[in-house]
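FIELD: query
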Amino acid sequence: MHTAHLGDAIAHLLTTPSGAVWTSYFDEGVYADSGLNTRGLVRFGPDLSPQWLYPHPDEAGLPFIDDCYALNIDGEKA
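FIELD: result
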């Protein structure tokens, strides 16, 4: 059992069979001054340490997530 602060303004929180935790955030968290929530989508490991962060648009040319309206996982895939 683990506890951790996963950020502010969580919209969705889903887990995989192996214990990964996918967390999406709504606009109040994304537009905050700092924190993991500013990425819009984060995957945490079973120990609740961040394993993957959605890249900032200027880093990868991806669209900005300013509010995650839906999140689905299928097994170990998001």
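FIELD: remark
The radius of gyration is 12 Å.
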